[in-house]
Structure formats: structure tokens, C-alpha cells
Design brief:
The structure holds two protein chains of two kinds.
Chain A (H helix, E strand, L loop, with lengths): L1 H32 L3 H14 L4 H15 L5 H21 L4 H17 L1 H22 L4 H17 L8 H13 L12 H11 L2
Helix pairs in contact in A: 1-2, 2-3, 3-4, 3-5, 4-5, 5-6, 5-7, 6-7, 7-8, 8-9
Chain B lengths: L1 H14 L4 E9 L9 E4 L5 E3 L5 E6 L4 E7 L6 E6 L6 E5 L15 E5 L11 H4 L7 H5 L24 E5 L2 E3 L21 E7 L13 E7 L7 E7 L2 E9 L3 E11 L1 H6 L5 E18 L3 E18 L8 E19 L4 E18 L2 E21 L2 E19 L6 E19 L4 E12 L4 E13 L4 E12 L3 H4 L8 E14 L2 E18 L10 E18 L6 E15 L15 E11 L4 E10 L3 E2 L10 E2 L3 E13 L2 E8 L9 E4 L11 E4 L6 E11 L11
Parallel strand pairs in B: 1-7, 9-12
Antiparallel strand pairs in B: 1-4, 2-3, 2-5, 5-6, 8-11, 9-10, 11-12, 13-14, 13-38, 14-15, 15-16, 16-17, 17-18, 18-19, 19-20, 20-21, 21-22, 22-23, 23-24, 24-25, 25-26, 26-27, 27-28, 28-29, 29-30, 30-31, 31-34, 32-33, 34-35, 35-38, 36-37
Classes of the chains: A mainly alpha, B mainly beta.
């Protein structure tokens, strides 16, 4: 009995220790994100390496690399960043299959290429992007990021072909509603996109 | 209780263990500091990022032997295993990753189209948006330097080589009958529809030891690994119709594509120089099945097509027109598997089967031929590290050719041959640094027909001179057995041989590419015979030889003007050969000295249209004028053609497409046919060999039905 208590105590301490390490690490990474994106991405990668069964740090490390790629004009740097992001997404996917959040991130990675050179990548990647959003919506139709990102992509496509973008505004409205009711599984699960969705919706109403 | 105490001490001991500081600097091999590198102990949270001076410092409670990892974009990850107490004032030098976009590439002789390669001369879309190409991948490649314009033939003639010297591969496996049959004054097309392929590599010389039985060139087509989505494509054209469908499941997908072409309505509106009895008609179907396994990808590709036509054509030696009837059917099946065996080894295996059947009626002669061929290949790749990769493999070709001949004069004859070839190859890619790389290989082939063994070395070197420019050198030795039209009459021969020497400069900047390539090519053991046409009575030998030398230029720019993309190709070719029934060394009639191609595409956003233009110029081709002394003693006038196309997006999924070849109606002459005997004045009369039609018009409507309501067939046009 005595022994089992010891073991139990030990185990619990161990778990609490690990938990707090993870939480500390994640919190620090999020706080670095605003000012020092590279350090944040490096820290997420370190956490990912230590927590090899958790897709979240891989996801965020990939997300930082993808966000940095929008507006990047140097193809060498863009290619290196997006290749790295792709590796991280692959790792995250191995841990969590058919995860709508990761599918959205993958779609954003392709979108970064389209944004860089639409003439070259638009035709080859747009089908892939659509397929990813369709798949994500099938798995989780209530996920606000799926609804919002798909709507923003559709609006971009409609603009390109000189078509009316207003039909997608109601998708954005629906996304805003979903954002309002969205509860992430843990404080570290993806919970971004609400502000940007509101901005895009505001442009709709002009 | 004592135990518990010990444990608590142990536990708190770990908690309050003395902290060790790990510090140092990170630079590259040139000593330049790296800012933002990630440094950490593997499996722990302990780590840091280098600051503006390339320095890092962090403390850890870990002890003993640990693994320190240093990583940064575009550099190879550095790993150090050692006792933590020694990880002080470290000076880490990261080596540049040779697989990055700005690293040197082994590219001499090669043009790539696709997303995978680092320098794309063509994009996958170009195959189908080039005005003169009419959706044929071979037609698009003819706008690249190194090819010559043989407008009535349509096949690829590369650097003074015959069309048979270029071999085509689908997913690494040989296609034995790549071209559709046509009349002798109409260009042929590739049999396979371009939209199933997403990668095209066209090599005009100096290619890898993996490829053999090609004297001049290889064209590598890769089928799409995974289609993006389920869809149905419908096309209605002035010359026929196409229908395609793609279905996807969790790990597999299937695409089918069928097309029917009938030129009867077109010929009724625009008559040509042929006298059609039965206009050109072809029915074709293709299907690709793909399945992902845990560590690999399996692809099955099958294609069937059947073509028939009958016509009469003028001939200067016959008062009546010559009747020509053809019925061709072709079945091609290709399967391949590529998979990862472990961290270092991967495997590729594939096999193809071709069954071709031709029935020809020429005047009162009937010829029936049947070809059955297989090709099987097994290849291993050992990626020892990023800088050293080893490839090895073996392959086997077997062709069984059989022909029956009937006419009123002689009794029926049948003849043929079996041509079996076994080959093995080994090749290494060696990157000494980000600026210097080698590829070296060796290929051995055994021809069972000739009982002949040949060894062909290959070598290429690439050196990067600046961030955007690089020089390459390539050398290779290539063997190929003579073509079917020779082998069916004589098998007492040897493989033909070429050597390539290539010097290349390439400049690749943001959406602009310039390349210049000089080459020298030497031909040996070419087949000669002593009659007008190859036949049973001919005497054959391998005493032919020849050479080709020249320089190719290419410039593409899609940056300078918004929405405009254009490229210019120019080739200068000097070639002579003594082969077939040539009396002496001469410039063959399929080689032009100068070839120029200009292709432009402009997207007009307001009109939702892409307009395209393509101009080609080729200097005259040789022919023999028997009224003058000599062999291949005259040249035709130069060839000129300007083609335009226009694609209009009615809606994202509906496209209207129109094109006109040779808009300005240049009267091109491909050569001359002379009478066998002179007239009363001792003059040989002649007839110009003209294209079936000077111009070609095409209109099509393409509609895609898919879940996303967005994709379309623009990439197929």
C-alpha cells in the first residue's frame, strides 16, 4: 500500500510537472508570437520535439512559417519556409489524421503559393485547396475557421473571374456566428480567425 | 519509510539540480553569422534562438550525455552528441542544404515542365495554351530549341537526329508506339492526352544512364499522382468530342477519358489537297488508376485507340492517284509502383505492354503488321545523404514484330524479328557543395538479336558561378538498335551509336530564364543499304556515320510586362550524315540550319480571355534535284507559320476556345518529288510536296462539372 501511494504520488508529480512544462512553454511561445515570430516558431518546434504525440506545437510552428510567407517576394526564402511548413504539417497529420484544423492550414499553405504567383500556381493548386476545404467541411461543418477560410478563398476566386462576391458574405456571417459559439478543446487549441473574418465581412457591406 | 525519503530526496534533487548553461555561436561555413537558428536539447524543452550576433545561451537541468540540435532554414540540421558539461562556447558551423532552390542543378540538355523541378522552362499549362500546339504535348515541345521543323511529320526531331532517335516514357516506362498514324502530308500527334500528365521532362542530350535505346533525346511524362477532385469534363469540338471523369476514394482514384475525332464535317467545309474516300476517324480511351499504400504509390495506366482513313493522293510517277488505306489499332498498358523501403532506400518497379496492329492497302498491295512489346524495369535509390545519392537498376525490352505482305505478283510473304535487350545501370549524384555537383553513371546493354554487349558511360558536371547563373558540361555515349523498318529485313547488324558533348550556361532569375547550349554529337555504326528503299534484296551494313553540332538559345520572360508571358527559341544546326542509301555525307532532309520560335500569351482580365500567338521560322530543307549533279543538292524556301488562339471564360467552368494555324496563309513547301524518268527535253519533272492544308481552324467548347464549381479545362487547351 505504502509503495503504491509512493508510486501514485510520483506519477502524479511527474504528470503535473510535464503538464506545467508544456503549459509554460506554450504560453511563452504565444506571448513571443506577437513580437518575435522566429523565436516563437523555434519554441513551438522545440515543444513539438519533446511532445511527440501532440499535434498542436507542430501546427503552430507550421502556421507561423505560412503566415510569414504571405507577402514574401524572395522565392528562395518562400520555398524554404513553405517546405518547412509542409514538413511540420506532415508531422501534425501523422499524429492527428483527418483533422479539419490541419486541413485548413494545408489549404492556407497552398494559398500562399497562389498569392505569390497566381499565374503559375493558381490553376494547379486551386483544385487542391477546394478539395481540402470540402473535406474539412464534411468532417466538421460547424468549424468556424473552415467556413470563414473557404468563404475568403471563394471571394478571391470570384474577384479573379470578375464575378459577384456577395453570395459569400452570408457564409462569412455564418462563420461569425460559429466563432461566437466556438469553444476550443483546451486553451491551446486553435481559436484564431474571428477578427479577420469580421474585417472581411465589413468589406462586404461597403 | 526510508525508501520514501530517499525517493523524495531524489525527486527534489532532480528539481533543484544545478543548472548547466549551454552557449555558443552559429555561423555558416563561410563564417557569416546566422540569426534565428533554433538550438535545443533533443526531447526536452530546453533551448534558444540565436540573436543578432549569432549567439545563443540557455540553461538546462539535464545532465550527462545529450543530443544538441541546431537547425535553420536552408541549412542542414546539425547534431552533436556529447556530455552536457562540454557544451560551452560552442562554435557551430551549419552546412548549406544542397536541395534548396538556389543550389546548383544538374540540368545540361534538359528542359522540365512541372511543379517538381526547380527550373521550369515550361509550365504544365503551356503544353496546352501554346497557339500552334493544338493541345498536343509534342507540338508544345517543338517550340523549344534543339528541335527542327518537319511540319508534315509532327514528331520530335532533335539536333540532327531522326524521329526514331527520341524515345518517350510514361512514368519511367517506355512507350513503343507514341504517335498516332496520319497521312504523309499531315503532322501526327502524340497518342496520349496531355491532361493526365503533370510533369514533362524533355532532354535534348546527355541524359541519365537510366535511359537507353535512344540516340538523341528522351521525353519523360509523369501521370498525375493524385487528382485534386472528382469532376466530369465535356468537350465539344469542330472535329469531334471528348468526355472525361475522375472519381476519388480515400486512398485511390480513377480517371477515364474518351475521345472521338472525325474529320468528315471539317473536310466538307474546308477541302484539302487529299482526295478522301473515308475521312480520318479515330476513337480513343484512356484510364488511370492510382492507389496509395502505406509506403508507396501504385499506378495503372491503360490506353486504347483505333484510327482509320482511306484516300487517294497525287504522285508524279502515276497517272492515277495512289490509293492509300490504313486501319491502326493500338493498346498500351503500363503499371508502376514506387515506394519507400526505409530511411535511405526506395524502390521503383514497372512494366508495360504494347500491342500495335496496322493494316495498310497501297494501290494493290496489302500489308499487315503486328507488334507486341514489353518493357520491365526495376530501380533502387539509395539516398545516403542530401549530398550523395546512388541509383541502380535493370531493365528488359522485348519486341516481337511480324509482317504479312500480299500482292497480285508474288506469293504472300511473312517475315519479322524478335528484338530482346537486357540492360543494367548505376548512377550517382554527388553534391560537393551548393555550387558544384556531379552526376556520373554507367549503362550496360546486351542485345540478344545481335549477340552484342555495349557499355555506355555518362557524366555531367554543374558549377554555379553566381546566385543566378551556372555552367554545365555533359558527356554521354548512347546506343540504339536499328528501327523496325530495317530489322524486319535484316538482323545481321549492330546497335547504332552516338556520343554527345554539351556545354551549357543557364541564367535563372525571378520568372526569367536564359539558356545557351552548345553541343557536338558524333554518330557511328549507322545502318546503310544499297537500294532506293529498305527491302529484302538490299545489302545492309553498319558503316554509316555522321555528326551534328550547333548552339541553342532560349529566353523566357513572364515578369517584364503584366499578364504577358513569352518565350523565344533559336537553334543553329550544322549536321551531315552518311546513312541509308546516301551516296555521300549530306545534310539530311529533316534538318534545317536555322529554327526560330516565338510564343506569347497575354491575359486580358476585362475580357476574361487569354490570347496566344506562336510564330515559327525554319530555313529550307534539302532535296535532290536530278536535273543538277549531286545528292541532296538543293534547298526548299524557308518555312513560316503564325498561329493564334483565344480562350474565353464564359463562366469559371465554361470555356470557349478557338485557334487558327498559319493565319497569314504562308504557302509552305516540304520538298519535291521528281519523276523517275526525264521528259523529251531530258528534264525531270517535279511536284511540290505540300501540306494537306495550308491552314487549320479549330473551335471548341469545354465544360467542367465539379463540386467546387470552379475548376475548368483551361489547363487542357
Amino acid at each position: 500500500m505504502k509503495h503504491s501511494i509512493i508510486i501514485a504520488t510520483l506519477l502524479v508529480t511527474g504528470i503535473i510537472n510535464a503538464q506545467s512544462n508544456y503549459e509554460k512553454g506554450m504560453q511563452k511561445a504565444f506571448s513571443l508570437w506577437g513580437t518575435k515570430a522566429t523565436e516563437a516558431s523555434n519554441l513551438f518546434e522545440r515543444i513539438a520535439n519533446a511532445e511527440s504525440n501532440n499535434w498542436l506545437p507542430f501546427y503552430y510552428a507550421a502556421q507561423i512559417n505560412i503566415i510569414n510567407s504571405f507577402g514574401e517576394k524572395d522565392e528562395k526564402k518562400l520555398n524554404a519556409q513553405l517546405k518547412k511548413a509542409q514538413d511540420l504539417i506532415n508531422e501534425a497529420t501523422t499524429i492527428s489524421k483527418d483533422n479539419p484544423e490541419i486541413l485548413v492550414l494545408q489549404a492556407l499553405l497552398h494559398t500562399a503559393w497562389v498569392a505569390y504567383d497566381g499565374a503559375t500556381y493558381g490553376m494547379t493548386l486551386s483544385g487542391k485547396v477546394i478539395e481540402l476545404y470540402t473535406k474539412a467541411a464534411r468532417i466538421d461543418p460547424e468549424n468556424p475557421r473552415v467556413v470563414y477560410c473557404k468563404a475568403e478563398w471563394d471571394m478571391g476566386g470570384a474577384k479573379y473571374f470578375g464575378q459577384d462576391t456577395t453570395p459569400f458574405c452570408k457564409d462569412l456571417e455564418r462563420a461569425i456566428e460559429l466563432f461566437a459559439n466556438f469553444k476550443p478543446e483546451t486553451p491551446f487549441h486553435p481559436n484564431w480567425g474571428k477578427e479577420r473574418a469580421a474585417q472581411v465581412l465589413a468589406s462586404c457591406k461597403q | 519509510m526510508k525508501n520514501l525519503l530517499a525517493l523524495i530526496i531524489l525527486l527534489t534533487g532532480i528539481q533543484f539540480n544545478a543548472q548547466t548553461t549551454i552557449n555558443g555561436t552559429v555561423t555558416n561555413t563561410k563564417g557569416e553569422i546566422i540569426v534565428g537558428a533554433n538550438i535545443y536539447l533533443e526531447g526536452t524543452y530546453d533551448g534558444s534562438t540565436t540573436n543578432e550576433k549569432g549567439e545563443f545561451s540557455f540553461s538546462t537541468t539535464e545532465a550527462g550525455t545529450q543530443t544538441l540540435i541546431v537547425s535553420y532554414l536552408s541549412y542542414e540540421t546539425y547534431t552533436m552528441v556529447g556530455d552536457i558539461s562540454y557544451m560551452k562556447d560552442l562554435s557551430v558551423k551549419l552546412r548549406e542544404d544542397v536541395s534548396t532552390l538556389d543550389a546548383v542543378i544538374l540540368s545540361a540538355g534538359t528542359f522540365s515542365a512541372g511543379d517538381n523541378s526547380k527550373v521550369n522552362v515550361l509550365k504544365p499549362l503551356d503544353v496546352v495554351t501554346t497557339a500552334s500546339a493544338l493541345g498536343d504535348f509534342v507540338g508544345a515541345l517543338q517550340t523549344l530549341p534543339g528541335t527542327t521543323t518537319v511540319s508534315e511529320d509532327g514528331r520530335l526531331f532533335v539536333r540532327g537526329g531522326e524521329a526514331e532517335e527520341t524515345q518517350i516514357f510514361i512514368d519511367g516506362i517506355r512507350v513503343l508506339t507514341p504517335y498516332s498514324p496520319t497521312t504523309n502530308n499531315t503532322p501526327t500527334r502524340g497518342r496520349y492526352s496531355p491532361f493526365l500528365f503533370d510533369g514533362i521532362t524533355f532532354s535534348t542530350g546527355g541524359y541519365s544512364a537510366e535511359y537507353g535505346q535512344a540516340l538523341s533525346s528522351v521525353l519523360l511524362l509523369n501521370t498525375v499522382d493524385e487528382p485534386d477532385q472528382e469532376k466530369t469534363d465535356i468537350g465539344i469540338m469542330s472535329v469531334g468530342a471528348t468526355l472525361g471523369n475522375t472519381q476519388k476514394w480515400k486512398k485511390s482514384s480513377v480517371s477515364v477519358n474518351a475521345s472521338y475525332i472525325n474529320l468528315a464535317p471539317y473536310n466538307a467545309v474546308f477541302s484539302d489537297r487529299n482526295d478522301w474516300i473515308k475521312p480520318f476517324e479515330t476513337l480513343s480511351g484512356e484510364t488511370v488508376f492510382r492507389k496509395r499504400t502505406n509506403s508507396g504509390l501504385l499506378k495503372l495506366y491503360g490506353a486504347f485507340d483505333t484510327t482509320n482513313f482511306e484516300l487517294t493522293q497525287e504522285d508524279i510517277n502515276y497517272d492515277d492517284n495512289i490509293r492509300f488505306k490504313l486501319k491502326n489499332s493500338n493498346l498500351y498498358f503500363n503499371s508502376s509502383y514506387q515506394g519507400v523501403l526505409n530511411d535511405n532506400w526506395s524502390v521503383f518497379g514497372g512494366a508495360s505492354y504494347t500491342h500495335g496492329n496496322n493494316k495498310l492497302n497501297i494501290i494493290d498491295r496489302d500489308i499487315k503488321d503486328t507488334e507486341n512489346s514489353i518493357h520491365a524495369k526495376l530501380k533502387f535509390k539509395n539516398r545516403i545523404n542530401n549530398r550523395f545519392k546512388l541509383y541502380m537498376g535493370a531493365e528488359y525490352f522485348s519486341t516481337d514484330f511480324h509482317e504479312d505482305y500480299f500482292d497480285d505478283v508474288v506469293s504472300p510473304i511473312n517475315y519479322g524479328f524478335t528484338n530482346n535487350i537486357a540492360a543494367a545501370f548505376v548512377e550517382a549524384d554527388i553534391f560537393l557543395s551548393k555550387v558544384l555537383a556531379f552526376k556520373t553513371g554507367l549503362r550496360g546493354e546486351y542485345s540478344n538479336l545481335f549477340k552484342d554487349f555495349s557499355v555506355a558511360p555518362r557524366l555531367s558536371v554543374a558549377y554555379k558561378t553566381s546566385s543566378k547563373g551556372q555552367f554545365s558540361l555533359a558527356y554521354g555515349n548512347f546506343y540504339q538498335n536499328p528501327s523496325n523498318y530495317i530489322l524486319k529485313f535484316s538482323q545481321d547488324l549492330k546497335p547504332q551509336n552516338t556520343s554527345h558533348y554539351i556545354f551549357n550556361y543557364q541564367y535563372n532569375a525571378d520568372r526569367r530564364i536564359f539558356r545557351a547550349e552548345a553541343y557536338y554529337k558524333k554518330y557511328d555504326n549507322l545502318v546503310k543499304f544499297d537500294t532506293e528503299f529498305a527491302g529484302f534484296d538490299s545489302q545492309y551494313n553498319n558503316n554509316g556515320s555522321g555528326f551534328a553540332k550547333g548552339i541553342d538559345f532560349f529566353w523566357r520572360d513572364s515578369k517584364s510586362a503584366k499578364n504577358l508571358d513569352y518565350w523565344i527559341s533559336y537553334s543553329l544546326l550544322d549536321t551531315k550524315r552518311d546513312y541509308r542509301n546516301y551516296e555521300s555525307e549530306a545534310q539530311p532532309n529533316f534538318a534545317n540550319t536555322h529554327n526560330l520560335s516565338v510564343v506569347g500569351k497575354y491575359f486580358i482580365t476585362d475580357w476574361r480571355s487569354q490570347v496566344g500567338l506562336s510564330y515559327s521560322f525554319a530555313s529550307g530543307r534539302t532535296y535532290t534535284n536530278p536535273n543538277n549533279p549531286g545528292f541532296l543538292n538543293s534547298k526548299t524556301k524557308p518555312y513560316n507559320s503564325l498561329s493564334l488562339n483565344w480562350a474565353y471564360l464564359i463562366s469559371p467552368q465554361k470555356i470557349l476556345y478557338a485557334s487558327v494555324n498559319n493565319v497569314l496563309g504562308f504557302k509552305n513547301v516540304n520538298g519535291y518529288q521528281y519523276a523517275n524518268s526525264p521528259d523529251m527535253n531530258g528534264n525531270f519533272a517535279r511536284r511540290a510536296l505540300l501540306p494537306a492544308a495550308d491552314q487549320f481552324f479549330f473551335v471548341g467548347f469545354f465544360w467542367t462539372i465539379s463540386e467546387d464549381k470552379k475548376s475548368n479545362q483551361l489547363d487542357k487547351l
